[in-house]
Amino acid sequence: MSRETALNLAFHAFDSGALRTDLARRVALATESQRPESAPVLHAYLSDEVANALAALGFACEIVENPVEGMPPFLLAERIEAPELPTVLLYGHGDVVGGDAERWSEGRSPWQLRVEGDRWYGRGMADNKGQHTVNLAALAAVFGARGRLGFNAKVLFEMGEEVGSPGLAALCESLRERLAADLLIASDGPRQRADAPTLFLGSRGALHFRLRARSSAGARHSGNWGGVLANPATVLANALASLVDGHGRIRINGLLPPPIAPQVRTRIADLEIGVDEGDPDLSPGWGEPGLTPAERVYAWNTLEVLAMEAGDVRQPVSAIPELAQAVCQLRFVVGTDWRNARELIRAHLAREGFADIDVEIEASGAATRLDPDHPWVAWAERSIATSTGKPTTILPNLGGTIPNECFAHTLGLPTIWVPHSYPGCRQHAPNEHGLAPVLREGLGLMAGLFWDLGSGDTPQAKHVAHAR
Ligand SMILES: [Zn+2]
Predict the structure, then answer these.
(1) Do residues 86 and 151 touch, judged by C-beta distance below 8 A?
(2) Mean pLDDT confidence for 344-365
(3) Is the bond leading into 8 cis (omega within 30 degrees of zero)?
(4) Helix count (H) and strand count (E) of the chain?
(5) Domain ranges, ordered by start, for the chain
(6) pLDDT at 376 over 80
(7) CATH topology of domain 3-203+367-467
(8) What residues pair up with 208 in beta bridges, in sequence order?
(9) What is the CA(217)–ligand 1 centre distance, in A?
(10) Ligand 1 midpoint to CA 191 (Å)
(11) How much distance in Å is there from the Cα of 206 to the middle of ligand 1?
């Protein structure tokens, strides 16, 4: 019984084809949470796949109805070995975005795992079936090597992540005691680079808002009325320019983050963006001046115009359009005053002379970030480096957004995310795939992490000793 045995068992899951068999079965379940008719298959994924895998390791499993009516259920599972051992909460989601089958190339299908060289194609291979299948197999490897886990584990799976995690916050709120743990370990999103084992400690938040400029006079002839009636498209374009300039720099101070903390800055000092094969060239001179590209993605806010519309560009007519609208997205790091965004944007627009523009917040998700100096971060970093023989890249937060608020804030857990995908994975797009070396390395490093969690030398153990 040794750490090495656990890692070897995990690698064996890859080398023997067992991981591939599990993934082929899971990918074949079209768990598209946007489609109401998916309800039976969403349920089946939890009962037949996740619960079966966990029951084999002695977990007690329960499928729990969603507190939001009509939304997919959750799976709660736990294996408590002893009260003094550390307790981890594991999370994953079994639903996927739409398959979009017609747009996959080379005869690939979203619902059939196809291995081409190092690429394992199939919907969910990056997000999230490939990732949680690695974690479940690593858990089984540790169980196989030790005959038990050596720690307590609680598991939460949802089937609605791709439709905004309905009910997840309410569930965490109502089951605080039952979900109590010492830390969260979960896997989603990409590594910073394909060959760099990565941890991230939270994510940027996202806020979608719609701006509408409308003419009370309705659409009017541009010759007879141009020059005396305000044009909503012109007004909106200038309002947008007052929010973000032509080089991507945010101009509304209220939506900027606080200064970058030193422990964040040092963690990302050496990171490069867009250097993997297939990555696009970065736009020169774009974004906040004086920051590195990594600081712009991981430690600053961005304001993107996602969509805009006025008149009919396919069939323009000589008229002042009645309505112009744009949907914008603020990606923000912790410390941003995003909850007051509507008031801040309205006040800014009024100051800039655009008081008549209507501002509506359409969706939002909070930013989270565990302190990079937290003892669980150093623990995980050490464990992964021991397993892989490589330095571990630590991102204070993901550039994208994940539902981490319920774990970090509602449950108050240190959150450690260990991604098993990479930036070129085509997540949410046709030809989504996992990368064989990343999956295999992920199996080993997760087995190492789970092994170490049961080996006594954890921040929780020190905490318990201190309390005595
Ligand atoms: Zn997703």
Answers:
(1) yes
(2) 97
(3) no
(4) 15, 19
(5) 3-203+367-467, 205-270+283-364
(6) yes
(7) Aminopeptidase (3.40.630)
(8) 329, 363
(9) 43
(10) 15
(11) 14
CA distance 27 to 102: 17
Asked if 205 contacts 365 with a C-beta cutoff of 8 angstroms, the reply is yes
428 Cα–ligand 1 center, Å: 6
How far from chain centre, in Å, is Cα 43?
22
What's the order of all strands across the beta sheet hosting 433-435?
A: 114-116, 119-121, 433-435
* Å from CA of 97 to ligand 1 middle: 7
> What's the fold here for domain 205-270+283-364?
Alpha-Beta Plaits (3.30.70)
pLDDT higher than threshold 90 for residue 463: no
Instruction: pLDDT band for 464, please (50, 70, 90 cuts).
Output: low
d(C-alpha 424, C-alpha 413), whole Å? 30
Ligand 1 center from residue 124 Cα (angstroms): 8
pLDDT at 467 over 70: no
The reported pLDDT for the residue numbered 449 is 98
- Whether 468 has a pLDDT exceeding 60, the answer reads no
Centroid of ligand 1 to alpha carbon of 333 (angstroms)? 19
In sequence order, the 6+-apart residues with CB closer than 8 A to the CB of 428 are 97, 127
